[in-house]
């Protein structure tokens, strides 16, 4: 919610992809509010509310398969590593790390992509893979934050530029 929505609207240049493990294959859910049926805030809220249902829609999907749940909401059976490889082709990648460059000191190109985790840190081997793909480490401060808090701070920093 914090990544996409602002009062009475949404951020037109933001797409959110959530990744997680599932019984058989990893799943990603992609929310693109610009592709939701209309631009009305209520429709966009309805669009985001459908995201959790995307996992139900993914039952029976084979590996490397994609399915549109509704306009603006899609689900894929794709591994996190593969997803990040695809993102690296068109985005400047960043991963949050307490030892990273302070966000205020980091220049951004067009299309930055921020990789956030929940309370369970990413395995060290994943960080190594991300570095090989060109991901840069960023810090938002000395305290560990929730991903939803990071999103707000990242948007604030980008909005100031």
Layout of helices and strands:
Layout (H helix, E strand, L loop, with lengths): L4 E2 L2 E2 L5 E5 L6 E5 L9 H9 L3 H5 L8 E5 L2 E4 L3 H11 L1 E11 L9 E4 L8 H9 L3 E4 L7 H14 L1
Parallel strand pairs: 7-8, 7-9
Antiparallel strand pairs: 1-2, 3-4, 4-6, 5-6
List keywords for this structure.
globular, alpha/beta, Alpha/beta knot, single chain, 9 strands, 30% helix, 5 helices, 161 residues, 2 domains
Estimated radius of gyration: 16 Å
CATH topology of the largest domain: Alpha/beta knot
CATH homology superfamily name of the largest domain: SPOUT methyltransferase, trefoil knot domain
- Name the strands of the widest sheet in spatial order: 3-4-6-5
Residues in helix, % = 25-40%
Largest sheet data: 4 strands, antiparallel
Q: Encode the helix/strand succession as letters.
A: EEEEHHEEHEEHEH
Overall pLDDT confidence:
83
pLDDT < 50 runs, ≥5 residues? none
Domains (count): 2
**Structural class based on helices, strands and sheet pairing:** alpha/beta
Number of helices, where a helix is a run of at least 4 consecutive DSSP H or I residues: 5
Q: Report the count of strand segments.
A: 9
Using the 3D structure, state the CATH architecture of the largest domain.
3-Layer(aba) Sandwich
Strand content: 25-35%
Could you say which overall geometry the principal axes of the C-alpha atoms support?
globular
Quote the distance from N terminus to C terminus.
22 Å
What is the CATH level 1 assignment of the largest domain? Alpha Beta
Describe this structure in words.
This protein is α/β, with parallel strands linked by helices. The chain has two domains: 5-76, 3-Layer(aba) Sandwich (Alpha/beta knot), CATH 3.40.1280; 80-160, Alpha/beta knot (3-Layer(aba) Sandwich), CATH 3.40.1280.10. Helices cover 30% and strands 26% of the residues. The chain has five helices and nine strands, in the order E-E-E-E-H-H-E-E-H-E-E-H-E-H. The strands form three sheets. The protein has a four-stranded antiparallel beta sheet. The chain is globular, with a radius of gyration of 16 Å. The mean pLDDT is 83.
């Amino acid at each position: 919610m914090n990544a996409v929505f602002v009062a009475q609207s949404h951020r037109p240049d933001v797409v959110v992809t959530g990744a997680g493990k599932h019984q058989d294959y990893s799943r990603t859910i992609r929310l693109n509010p610009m592709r939701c049926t209309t631009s009305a805030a209520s429709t966009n809220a309805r669009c985001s509310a459908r995201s959790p249902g995307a996992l139900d829609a993914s039952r029976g999907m084979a590996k490397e398969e994609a399915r549109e749940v509704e306009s603006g909401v899609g689900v894929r059976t794709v591994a996190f590593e593969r997803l990040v490889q695809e993102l690296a082709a068109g985005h400047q990648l960043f991963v949050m790390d307490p030892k990273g460059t302070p966000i205020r000191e980091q220049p951004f190109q067009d299309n930055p992509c921020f990789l956030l985790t929940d309370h369970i840190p990413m395995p060290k081997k994943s960080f190594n893979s991300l570095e090989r793909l060109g991901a840069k480490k960023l810090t938002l401060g000395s305290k560990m934050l929730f991903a939803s808090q990071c999103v707000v701070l990242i948007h604030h920093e980008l909005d100031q530029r």
